[in-house]
């Protein structure tokens, strides 16, 4: 989250209660500071204002002493204090009563949603992202209507349409420009300005899609990605997420599989140098094979037969293929998790599952490891070891959504991911540990302990 968004969120938190010192009279909304530092025009203090000793002079610094010192009794101010960390900000947010219901700008709602998402708290993230989405629905509707009127005429850029937008401009201000163009009958200008204003709104739906997927709600995750593609059919993250989910959840729907393949192909065409492009090409090829086989079950059956032949001399490795992607949690399952009593026995059982999961990973049993972690994460969504293990299991299985879950694990607890490599090494999986650290080095270039990773890789 950028510094400006951190400060905006902090400002929201500071909006209530009042920042005035204890006992200070209430200042009505809209009251402006007087040149006489709060005194009325005739020199009298406002009603209820504490008495000022005779002879006291107003300072040019509006109350500070001439030598720069703060007034007597003023709270100390640390001029070197840095903006709050994510952890500190989360504590403030969690303790702010009524924050979710409070009116927010689009930018603050998005900031809060991204903060909760990056820290693995997807339910809260979805609540704030939903508020941001609602703030952007008006300009979205304007864009879609204007584009429809234009027909086959391409939508111009904001610069070409002279929208006059500046970096970091608020969405409601940009929407006002687009609405004014529409009222003036300038359909092309309205479409161009509305499309430019929607750029941050597309990010809202991408993050919503990711959070919904991690919550087990694949159906609504698909809808979130589709909202992005309706506005921008070339948006990389939405193309990848939408196609990946179609492939994972619609394995027997040949039409859906064709759409997934088209999405991966479109991603490669629009972003040939993207880090996702190699995987998109591979998945497109896999979907092509699945379509030729007549669906995923038939494709898996053919691969199982081939594997049985190749591994005929290794019965332990010739086990049946793992099932499809983990089943999404139903509302009933979510309620069951919430209502389950957290007993010492349950906690011990979850810890054992994590230990077993790491043992499975160290021996390349990614499906078995994933099965363990999917039983832990619903009960312990902030368990860094479980999230790191689940991410590495999905990467090992080559699942389409593996890259996304891996990214979330790095954002929320990169230290746990590095430690997983230590665990794999201790269990004899030096190759797996090295692969994990190498991938972490590539995907987390700003990791604070990158030097330790390099040291481990150079051993």
Question: Could you characterize the architecture of this molecule?
Answer:
Helices cover 61% and strands 0% of the residues. By secondary structure, the protein is mainly alpha-helical. Among the domains are: 106-201, no CATH class; 234-316; 331-457, Serine Threonine Protein Phosphatase 5, Tetratricopeptide repeat. Helix 9 runs antiparallel to helix 10 (254-270) and helix 14 packs parallel to helix 16 (384-397). It is globular. It starts with a helix and ends with a helix.
Helix count from the secondary structure assignment: 19
Order of helices and strands: HHHHHHHHHHHHHHHHHHH
CATH classification class of the domain at 331-457: Mainly Alpha
CATH architecture of the domain at 331-457: Alpha Horseshoe
Structural class: mainly alpha
User: How many β-strand stretches?
Assistant: 0
Task: State the major sheet.
Answer: none
- Give average pLDDT, whole number: 79
Shape: globular
Helix content: 55-70%
> What name is given to the CATH topology of the domain at 331-457?
Serine Threonine Protein Phosphatase 5, Tetratricopeptide repeat
Could you name the ranges where pLDDT drops below 50 across 5 or more consecutive residues? Answer: 13-20, 32-41, 58-66, 308-329
Rg from alpha-carbon coordinates: 28 Å
Distance between the termini: 35 Å
The percentage of residues in β strands lies in under 5%
């Amino acid at each position: 989250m950028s510094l400006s968004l951190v400060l905006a969120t902090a400002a929201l938190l500071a909006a209530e209660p009042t920042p005035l010192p204890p006992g200070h009279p209430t200042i009505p909304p809209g009251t402006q500071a007087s040149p006489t530092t709060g005194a009325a025009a005739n020199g009298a203090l406002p009603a209820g204002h504490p008495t000022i000793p005779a002879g006291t002079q107003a300072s040019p610094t509006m109350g500070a002493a001439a030598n720069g010192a703060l007034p007597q009794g003023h709270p100390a101010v640390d001029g070197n204090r840095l903006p709050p960390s994510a952890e500190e900000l989360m504590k403030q947010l969690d303790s702010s009563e009524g924050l979710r219901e409070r009116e927010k700008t689009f930018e603050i709602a998005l900031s809060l949603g991204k903060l909760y998402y990056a820290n693995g708290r997807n339910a809260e993230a979805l609540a704030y992202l939903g508020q941001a989405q609602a703030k952007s629905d008006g300009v979205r509707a304007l864009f879609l209507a204007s584009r429809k009127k234009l027909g086959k005429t391409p939508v111009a850029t904001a610069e070409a349409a002279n929208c006059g937008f500046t970096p970091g401009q608020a969405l409601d201000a940009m929407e006002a420009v687009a609405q004014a163009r529409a009222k003036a009958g300038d359909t092309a200008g309205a479409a161009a300005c509305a499309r430019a204003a929607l750029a941050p709104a597309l990010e809202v739906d991408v993050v919503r899609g990711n959070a919904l997927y991690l919550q087990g709600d694949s159906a609504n995750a698909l809808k979130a990605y589709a909202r992005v593609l309706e506005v921008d059919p070339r948006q990389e993250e939405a193309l990848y997420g939408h196609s990946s989910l179609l492939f994972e959840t619609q394995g027997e729907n040949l039409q859906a599989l064709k759409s997934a393949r088209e999405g991966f192909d479109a991603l490669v065409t629009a972003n040939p140098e993207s880090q996702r492009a190699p995987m998109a090409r591979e998945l497109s090829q896999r979907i092509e094979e699945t379509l030729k086989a007549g669906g995923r079950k038939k494709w898996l059956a053919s691969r199982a037969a081939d594997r049985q032949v190749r591994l005929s001399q290794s019965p332990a490795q010739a086990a049946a293929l793992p099932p499809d992607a983990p089943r999404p949690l139903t509302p009933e399952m979510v309620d069951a998790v919430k209502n389950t009593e957290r007993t010492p026995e349950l906690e011990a059982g979850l810890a054992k599952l994590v230990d077993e999961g790491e043992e499975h990973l160290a021996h390349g049993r990614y499906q078995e490891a994933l099965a363990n972690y999917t039983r832990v994460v619903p009960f312990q969504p902030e368990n860094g070891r479980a999230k790191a293990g689940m991410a590495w299991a999905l990467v090992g299985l080559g699942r389409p959504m593996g890259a996304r879950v891996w990214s979330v694990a790095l954002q929320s607890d990169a230290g746990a991911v590095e430690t997983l490599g230590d665990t794999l090494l201790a269990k004899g999986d030096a190759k797996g540990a090295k692969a994990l650290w190498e991938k972490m080095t590539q995907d987390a270039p700003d990791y604070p302990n990158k030097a330790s990773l390099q040291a481990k890789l150079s051993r």
